[in-house]
Amino acid sequence: MNTLTARAGTSVSNLTRARMPMVATTVLLIVTVTAAATLQGNFFTPYGMTANFATILPIATVAVAQTIIVLSGGIDLSIGTIVTLSSVVTVRLMDGGDPSQVPLALAAGLATGAACGLFNGLLVAVLRLQPIVATFATSFVFGGVALLVLSSPGGTVPAVLTGGYRQVFAYLVPVPALLLLVLWLAWRLLRAQRIGQYLYAVGGNAGASYASAVPVTWVRVFAYTAGGTVAALAGVALLANSGSGDPFIGNELTLGSIAALVIGGTRLRGGAGGAGGSILGAIILTLIQNLVFFAGVPTNARELVNGAIIIIAIALAGLLTARSERAGRSEGRTA
Amino acid sequence: MSSRPRWHDFSALAAGALLIGATACSTPDSGGGDGADGAAEGPFTIGLSNGFIGSEWREQMLATLEEAVGEYQAQDIVDELVVESADVDVNGQIQQIRNLINSGVDAIIVNPNSPTALDQVFAEADDQGILVLAIDQAVTSESVTNVVIDQGEWAAANAQWLADEVGEGGTIIAVNGIDGHPANEARWAGATEVFDSAGVEVVANDFAQWDQATGQQVTQNLLASHPDVDGIFVQDGMALGAFQALESEGKVGDVAITGEARVGFMKRWAEQREEDAEYSSIGVPNPPAGSVSALHVAVRMLQGQEFTSDALDGNTLYLPIPETVTDDNFDEQFGAVEGEPDTYAVDGSLTPEEADAYFQ
User: Fold this and answer.
1) Cβ neighbours of A286 in B, within 8 Å
2) Quick one: pLDDT at residue A255?
3) Cβ contact (<8 Å) for A44 and B28?
4) For position A19, what pLDDT does the model report?
5) Which residues in chain A touch residue B19, judged by CB atoms under 8 angstroms apart?
6) Backbone conformation region of residue A320, classed left if phi is above 0, alpha if psi is from -120 to 50, else beta
7) Where are chain B's structural domains?
8) Which residue of B has its CA nearest to A193?
9) Chain A: closest CA distance from residue B88 (Å)
10) Domain A6-327 belongs to what topology?
11) TM spans, by residue (chain A) (predicted)?
12) Average pLDDT of span B171-176
C-alpha cells in the first residue's frame, strides 16, 4: 500500500470488503471451470487443455495490457489495432520460415507496440486529449498502417513458434498456460516497483498524486507505452495460434479486453484492480463462450445467451466492486 | 509498501489449480472423433464452422446442408450435425473449430474466413483424426480437402460474355469484391485473362465489398468519371446495385453489364426483357449448396473410400458450376426460382451418385 491508502488498508473491515471483487471473480472461475469440465468431455486431456489455453492466452494478454492503462485512469480503444499492427510487422519480418529471423522480428514487433503506446500516451498525457476519443482515432491510424504493412492475409510463421505454442509439459500443462503464469509474475514484479505504486495513485486520484510529487504525466505515458508493449506480446501469441498473418487479426480484441478486466474486478475509472483478476476474467470470458456451445444452445440463440451470461458476470463483479468502493473510497487494491 | 501478503490473489489461482488438480486424473481420454483410423462404420458426426452470418447466401448454405444431413440421418449414416455459426474474426473461428474438435465430431466442413490463418487449427484437427473440408473458399493447409468451385472459371464465364458483348477494342469498368481477398483475386485473375486475350480494355477497377448498396455507389462514381464505357464487369452480390446505378444514368440498354444468378437481379432482368426483347445479360451461379457437395464427399471419405486418381487437383476438388442463366434459358431458370426471396441464389450441388464418381 502506498502512503495515500495506508490508513484505509489497515482497517480489517475494509480489508475484507476490498477483496469482494476477487471473491466474485473466483466464484465465477470455479463455476465456469466446473461447468466446462462437466460439459466438455475432453476438458482435462492434453489437447483439451492446450486448445483452451491457446485460445485464452491472446485475449488474456490484451486484457493485461488494457488493465495497466485503465489502472492509471486511462483507456485504450486502439489496443486491438496495436495487436494487429505489431503482429503484421512481426510476420512480415519472419516470413520465409527462417528461424534465425525470429528474434529480430519479435523485437521489431515489440518495438512497434511500444511506439504505438507511446504515441497514445503523448496524445493523452501531454496534449491532454480525452483518452476515449484520442485512442478511438489512433485505432484507425494503426489499423490503416497495418493494412499498408500487410494488405491481404498471408505470411508464414516459423514452425518453432507454432509448434512450441502447442507443447504440453507434464501431461496437462500446456505452454500457453505457462506463458500466462510468466505474464502474471511479470505483472507482480511491476506492481512491486515504485512505478507500479504510481499507476494506482494516479488512477485513484491524479490531483492528490500530483500534490504528492508523483510525476503524473510521465506515469500516464508509461502506462500507455507498457500497455502497447504487452499488446504486442498478444500479437505474437496470435501469430503462434494462427500460424499466419492477417491485417485484421487483433482488431476485435479491444472490447473483449475491457470486458475481461471488468469481470476481473478492475475499476474502469482507474486506481483499483489488477492484472491477475483480468487474466481470470479472460479465462471466464472464453470459457463462457465455449460453454454456450457445449450446452447445446441452438446456433442462432448462442450470441444472445452468451451476451446475457457476460452481463450477469460483469454485473456480479461490478456490484461487488461498487460495494467495496463505498466502504473504502480512496483505497487502492491489488490483484 | 507494506509486507502484507496478498494471499487473496494466490487463493484465486490456487482454487482454480486445486479444482483442476482434483479432477485431472479422472478423465484422461484423448479427444477427437472415432473415425480416426481410415474406414469406419458410422454413424458419423459432422461439424460445420461458419464465420460470417447475416447473408442470405450463408443461410442457404446452412439450410441446404441441414436438409441433406437429414437424408443421411434417415439412413443412419450421419447421427448429428453440430453447427458453429456466428460473426467471428479469425480468432473466433479458431475457437469455433477447437470447440468442434473437442465435441468429438468425425469431420468438419468449414467456410473459412482466411485462406491461411486457420492452417494451424486444421493441423490440430488432423492430429486428432478429424477430417476437414473447406467450402466456398480454398485454404492452403495440406490437412484439408477443398471442395469448391473454381472462382477463376466462374469469373471467366462472366468475362467471356462481356467481352463478346463489347467486342474487341471495347472499354469496360470493373466493380470487384474486396481488394486482396483470395476469392476476389482468383476471380479477377480469371477475368483479366479473358479480357486481355479478347482485346478488351479495363479503364477503371474499384471495390464494393460484395455489397449491393456499395456496388451502386461505386458504379455511379465510376460511370461519372468514365461516361463512355461499353460495359461493366461486376461480381455477384453487387450486380443489382450496379444495374440500378446504370438505370439512374439512363444507360441500361447501352452499357452491357454482367448480372447475377439471384432472384432480385433476375426480376429486373425479366422486366427489362419485356421492355426490350434484345436485352441481354448473364448470371453465373455461385452455389451455396457447395456445403451439400462437401457433405457427400465427407461421408465417402469417412467410409474409407479412396479418390480416383484425377478427382483432385492438389488437395482441391473442383465442383462443376451449375448451369449458367443465359438469355436462352432465362424463362425456364427464372420460373424455377421466381417464388423465392430476392436474395435467393440459383443453386445446385453434387448428387450422391455424382459424388460417387469422384471415388474409386
Assistant:
1) 95
2) 92
3) yes
4) 53
5) 30, 33-34, 37
6) alpha
7) 44-149+287-320+347-356, 151-259
8) B1
9) 9
10) ABC transporter involved in vitamin B12 uptake, BtuC (1.10.3470)
11) 20-39, 51-84, 104-125, 132-150, 170-190, 221-242, 278-298, 304-322
12) 95
Sign of the alpha-carbon torsion through A225, A229, A234, A236: positive
Contact list in B for residue A22 (CB cut-off 8 A) is 8-9, 12
Report the residue from A47, A156, A293 with minimal CB separation from B30. A47
CB atoms within 10 A of CB B221: 16
Average pLDDT over residues A76-95: 95
What is the per-residue pLDDT for A324? 62
CA distance A107 to chain B (A): 22
Structure-block grid coordinates of residue B334: 427464372
A129 min Cα distance to partner chain B (Å)? 31
Please give the angle made by the CA atoms of B138, B139 and B142, to the nearest 5 degrees. Answer: 120
CB distance B102–A41 less than 8 Å?
yes
Sheet holding B144-149, edge to edge: B78-85, B44-50, B107-111, B131-135, B144-149, B316-319
| Nearest residue, CB atoms, A290 vs list B29, B99, B120 | B99
- CA B304, B308, B314, B318 dihedral sign is negative
> Which CATH code, of 3.40.50.150, 2.40.50.320, 3.40.50.300, 3.40.50.2300, is assigned to B44-149+287-320+347-356?
3.40.50.2300
Q: B52: burial class by Cβ within 10 Å (0-12, 13-18, 19+)?
A: middle
pLDDT tens digits, B151-168: 999 999 999 999 999 999
Q: What integer pLDDT is reported at residue A322 of this predicted model? A: 65
* Confidence band, pLDDT 50/70/90 cuts, at residue A330: very low
For the packed helices B7-23 and A275-294, what is the interaxial angle rounded to 10 degrees? 30
Cα(A75)–Cα(A230) distance, rounded to whole angstroms? 15
**How many residues in chain B?**
360
The band of B212, judged by pLDDT with boundaries at 50, 70 and 90, is confident
Residue B252 pLDDT grade (very low, low, confident, very high; cuts 50, 70, 90): confident
Q: How far is B282 from chain A (nearest CA, A)?
A: 30
Q: Is the pLDDT of residue A326 over 80?
A: no
Q: How many CA atoms lie within 13 A of B47 on its CB side?
A: 25
Contact at CB, A249 and B128, closer than 8 angstroms: no
* Topology given in CATH for the domain delimited by B151-259: Rossmann fold (3.40.50)
Nearest Cβ partner for A197 among B1, B116, B124:
B1
- Contact yes or no for B24 and A172 at CB 8 A: yes
Number of CB atoms found within 10 A of residue B331's CB: 11
**What per-residue confidence (pLDDT) applies to B125?**
96
Mind listing the pLDDT tens digit for each residue in B48-84? 999 888 778 888 999 999 999 999 999 999 999 999 9
Q: How far is A16 from chain B (nearest CA, A)?
A: 10
For residues A131-143, b (16+ Cβ closer than 10 Å) or e, as one string? beebbeebbeebb
Indicate if ipTM > 0.90: no
Asked if the Cβ–Cβ distance from A280 to B12 is below 8 Å, we say: yes
**Does the distance separating the beta carbons of A43 and B12 come in below 8 Å?**
no
